[in-house]
Amino acid sequence: MCQFTDKDKRQTLADFFTRDGFYPAGRLDYDSEGLVILTDDGQLQHLISHPDKKQIKTYYAQVEGAIDQSAVSQLQRGVQLKDGVTKPAKATCVVTPGWLWNRNPPIRQRDSIPTSWLKLAITEGKNRQVRRMTAAVGFPTLRLIRYSIGSWSLQGLLPGEYREDVIYLPRMSRR
Q1: In this structure, is residue 86 part of a structural domain?
Q2: How does 25-56 read in b/e, with b if 16+ C-beta sit within 10 Å?
């Protein structure tokens, strides 16, 4: 859960990080995994999460079915969703990532239906956008992992681990 409390008593950020005054910059839905940036700096939080700043977010998506080039091309052009057309994504088919950890609970597996992996980079942050995009091209997402936001990535981290980075930002002028 990409927050510090949950009325349903599910696991939250507080189970992994206990320092006061930090907040997530952006969010992940409950079914997704991966990178969450925590900050105590409102300016940095704004830089990371505000739609106008267009930070590139990279995801790995395991989808149901053997995805084809036609679907990848649609993702690369932009996909029509109920709330409008998405901006084009950088989308490529990839092999199962070698750094991948076991998921708990595991995704559903069907012996008769293969799965495929995609690497997608987007600059928008619509609600459940990657899941809705893959479903719109006929390949529902089974597992979704946010690998990076801008220059920050999961590289070298396992689930529940974190590293501290100190970032100094120039003072932003107010217009």
Answers
A1: yes
A2: bbebeeebbbbbbbbebeeebebbbeeeeebe
Say which CATH number the domain at 145 has.
3.30.70.1560
58 falls within a domain = yes
Whether 48 is in a domain gets the answer no
Distance CA 58, CA 147 (A): 6
Q: What is the residue range of 112's domain?
A: 54-153
Number of domains within the chain: 1
Q: Which residue has the higher pLDDT, 46 or 134?
A: 134
Q: Which residues are catalytic?
A: 29
Q: pLDDT tens-digit profile of 62-78? A: 999 999 999 999 999 99
26-45 pLDDT per residue, tens: 788 888 898 888 888 888 88
Please give the single-letter amino acid code of residue 33.
Answer: E
Average pLDDT of the chain, as a whole number: 86
Residue 130 and residue 117: Cα distance in Å, rounded? 13
